[in-house]
Structure formats: structure tokens, C-alpha cells
Amino acid sequence: MKNKIKVGIIGYGNLGKSVELGIRQNKDMQLAGIFTRRDPSTLKIITEGVQAYHIDQAKDMTDKIDVMVLCGGSMSDLPEQGPYFASLFNTVDGYDTHAKIPEYFNKVNKNALEAGKVCIISSGWDPGMFSINRLYADAILPEGKTYTFWGTGISQGHSDAIRRVKGVRDGKQYTIPVEGAIEAVKRGEMPELTAREKHKRVCYVVAEEGADKEQIKQDIITMPNYFADYDTEVYFVTAEELEKNHGGLPHGGLVIRYGKTGAHEENRHTIEYKLELDSNPDFTANVLLAFVRAAYRLSREGVSGAKTVVDIAPAYLSDQSAEELRKSFI
Amino acid sequence: MKNKIKVGIIGYGNLGKSVELGIRQNKDMQLAGIFTRRDPSTLKIITEGVQAYHIDQAKDMTDKIDVMVLCGGSMSDLPEQGPYFASLFNTVDGYDTHAKIPEYFNKVNKNALEAGKVCIISSGWDPGMFSINRLYADAILPEGKTYTFWGTGISQGHSDAIRRVKGVRDGKQYTIPVEGAIEAVKRGEMPELTAREKHKRVCYVVAEEGADKEQIKQDIITMPNYFADYDTEVYFVTAEELEKNHGGLPHGGLVIRYGKTGAHEENRHTIEYKLELDSNPDFTANVLLAFVRAAYRLSREGVSGAKTVVDIAPAYLSDQSAEELRKSFI
């Protein structure tokens, strides 16, 4: 039997836990260790026989791990951890601060090239599968326009923003695409859409006892960057209702390109890539793991440096041979 | 300015004509010649300044063409032309006899390796973009099931079959996916679907004068391989109606994967890739052209051999640099 790919996990939050579960679905992988900044003895690892380590111990385990999955946040964790671990391991991460991806790429690339490692950045679904689909659609229909819609799903950033409002005990925010906008795109109107025209925001809020609900509502819907540019609905619920009805992390979205062909642009085409996800972290984790396989295989071929998802041939994501793929998938 | 990619077209039917039009949308390409088995002087080429040649002249023009697009049929043209032109040119084709792809690959690969050419086979949308999406979805959701639906669209093969029926002057056949089956897939029932449960077939038929329409209908709906295993509807129309209402070549389809994740498979996910195409040949041509760019670039990197669409990193399909892609698409 082939050696399994030994996978390490940096960070044991929602995403790290989902990566742990996802490894079980991939018969050619095994979990080799989980690394945390917390006291490792406090971690409740699901996988039998696997140990938690302090993140500082990782550097001494380069011979025990084939690919490290970086599950920290893009705000403060990955800008440090990405370049650092690129000097030690093949890595896969889901760095998602779109505007800073070129800068992040360059830092990771430098260290990965020096260390001879393969580091796949900004994997997941957006960036990730949505990036891949934007690129394919653009290449196939050069005369056209691409739109990305997100939701219906929970936005962590916006939920956090709600919770920072005075008088709010807890809250969840759903990003919901505006159906009329999607319809207009499909009809071929190639509309220029504002933030407000593309998505609306629906908030479920648990108020502290005695808090001024009208004030909370005003504070939310006028919040710059997060809500002011959108039509926002605010509903007050009990803590129990929030837990029961809004306790999950569903998400999803749609990349759609409308394009024209023909001697007189008389032929219209739409390409849609749509995700409906019960669990954002589970799905993201599974995408990261498919790219773990790619990083492992590329590394064994002698490749090194940072890569994004569009630099990787789809075949590298599969555990099947090229012959099997030609027979079963083409 | 960069040199443009010099593209040749073998075969000037529906697909070849669409490739000619598609080249205009790709600013980094130019049409270098069209090759036909007919008398070249009879071809009405749209592009100014471009010449038609007899197909036998192609072998003397290897220095004038960077990539040859093979637009012949999979039944009898490509099995000969694919391996033949692989010895002379980088090629892209849409070979679509799924069961024979491994055999075709091997023949093309042998000649392409000997000649140092890159030959991308079985491009288009199915095989092609649908193959890519089946593979990605399978790799991301290992626990799940993938379904491919085709239509609503005109099937050339089934339209041809109708026309061979006694008493039929002309006819068109629409393949239509069964909505209920798609819904069942989305609901997560992971159904085992028969041919009849997945698609229905709707035929528009122009009968010859005095023909027995009831007999024509029976002959169609009981025809083995083509119609007997499906619910088939037959409508008789005039030649004018057929031309006016069914003169185009629309098509499309859907690849959908349903999968589960989580500690107890409690989280459900769907990935959908959907195409709605006014013109099947135009869209197919545009996919072939995106892979022309890939073949050209791989060839310049010194790569050789046969490739399928899953062997090509998405970035190779774009005319933008890796830096631009990281900035605009990731």
C-alpha cells in the first residue's frame, strides 16, 4: 500500500476541526498532529492516537509531516504564519484578504523557494473554487461580464460587528443575494450593480436586558463599511432562538458569467457555478485537503514556491491516476 | 507587441465556423488558415485575408501555424486526423466518444511525444468543462455522488436518427432534463436514476407528403438506443415552422454533486456547474480556443505529449500574467 500523506493542522478552531474531520474522508491521508498556541493538554482531539503540540514544537517535526494546513485567521495569524511555515513545510492555507493576496504571495513564495517547499495559498471557495471559476469563465467567454454573489449564509465578520454594538449580547448576520439582481444578470442585461443591489443583510440579535432596541437597530444599520451601504433588516430574538435557529454556519454563493458570441454577438451564454453549503468550515476544509494532495504531489515532483489554486492542474487534486481519470471523468 | 498565436482550423462545418468567429474575441490570436477536404475555392471564409487550403497542404505549413484546431467529427474524422496531425502540429480537439477516449489518447500521445507537440484532446464542454467540474467536485466531496444532466438542447445525433425514419423529411430533437430528478438530487436523496428518469426527448418532425404520421411516431419512439429507453414526445410541424422555431443549436446542462461532511455526516453540500448556451458550436469553439492558448504556452515551455483538460492548470487558459491573475481573479 502507498504511504499516506501525513497532514498537520495549525490552529484548532472551526476550520481546524473541520480539517480533522475531512481527513477521514480522504483514504490517502492521515492526521499527524495538531498544533496550537493554547496549552496543548486542553485540546479535545477527536482522532484517536493523534497528539496536540504547542505551535513552537512544529519546527522540530519537519520529518513527520508532509503538508501543514494553516487554519488561522487572515487578519493577524496567516500574515505571520504563512511565511514562517513556508520555510519549514509544504503548506496549504485559505488566506482570504483579497486585496493583499499579491503581497502575501510574494512573502510566502520567497521563503518557499528558499526552503524548496510547495505552498498553496488562498484556497477554499472564495478565494478558491470561485477564483478558478471566474478565470475559466473569463477565458471561455472573452466578451462578457462576471458576477459573484454570496449567500445565503452566515458572515463571521458581520456577526462579529453586530456583537460589538452597545447593548448586544449576541448576534448572527446572514448575507443574502438579491434574486432580482441574479435574474437581471441571467437575462443578459450586464447591469452595473452597487453593493446594495447585489446583497441584503439580515441580522438576528439578542439584546442585553433593558437595552434600547431601537438604538441598537440604528447603530447596526448605519454602521459604516459593514451595513450602511446595504438594505439591512434587524430582528430581535432570544438567546435560545438564536442557538436553535441560527446556530450553524451555512453559506454558499454563485459565480455567474454572461457572454456573447457569433458574427453579430447574437448568441448568449451563461456559465454558473453555485455552492449551497450546510457548513462553511467543513466545505472550506475539504477544499484545502484536495489542495493538500496537490501540494504533496507537486513537492514530490520537485516543484517549489508559492502557488494559487489557478496554478494547479485539476488532476493533482484527485487520488486517482491519470489513466483512471481519463476513463471515469473525461 | 507580443506575437499572436497563429491558429489553423481543420474542417469548416458548424464548429470550424464558430472557431473562426471565436478567434476574433481573443486578441492574442490570429487565424492562419482553414483546411478542408472539399475544393478550397468553394469555401466562403468570413475573415479577410485568410486563405482556404486543401487538407493535404497542411503538412507543408508546419512553420506557419502554432496550434491546429481539429473540428472534424468524432465518429470517423478525429480517429484518423487526431493521431495524424499530432505528428505535425500542436493540436486541440473535441473528441467526444467517451468510451474510446483512453484509446484515442494513447494514439495521439505516441505521435505527439515523437514529434515534440502538445495535443489537448476531448476539450469542449462535455467532455471538457463538465469533466473538469466532475473531477473538482469529486475531490472536494469524497463522500457523495455526481450527476450530469444535459439540455435543454438540440442533440445532433438524435436529430440525425429522426431523419433516417421512413416518411420523415426533416426533424430536430431536444434533450430535456427531468426537473423532478434534479430536485431529488438537490434534496440529497442520492437517487439511482435510469436514462428515462433523467431525460426526456422531444421531437419536431416534418413529414413527407402523404406519409403515415402514426407510423413515423411509432418508429421514432420505439427506436432502440436513441428513443426506446426514454419518454419521447413527437410533434409534427411544417418545414417553415421547423426552420423558424427550431433552427438554432442551443444546448446546455448541469453537473451537480451532492455530498456530506461532519462527524456524523450531518452537513450536506451541493456543487452545481450549469451552462445555458444559445449556440453549442460557438461555446464549444470558445472552450477549444482557451485550450489553444494553453497548448501554445505549454509547447513553448518544452512540454510535449497528449493532455486532457484536467491536466492543464486553469492559469494556462488566460491571456493574463500570473501577477494579473492574482490581482484580479483570486
Structural class of chain A: alpha/beta
Count of spatially separate domains of chain A? 2
Largest interface summary: A-B, 69 and 69 residues
- The helix/strand order of chain A is EHEEEHEHEHEEHEHHEHEHEEHEH
CATH architecture of the largest domain in chain A: 3-Layer(aba) Sandwich
| CATH homologous superfamily grouping of the largest domain in chain A | NAD(P)-binding Rossmann-like Domain
Descriptive notes:
The structure is a homodimer of 330-residue chains. With 330 residues, the first copy, chain A, is α/β, with parallel strands linked by helices. Helices cover 34% and strands 26% of the residues of chain A. Strand 13 of chain A pairs antiparallel with strand 13 (267-277) of chain B, so a sheet runs across the interface.
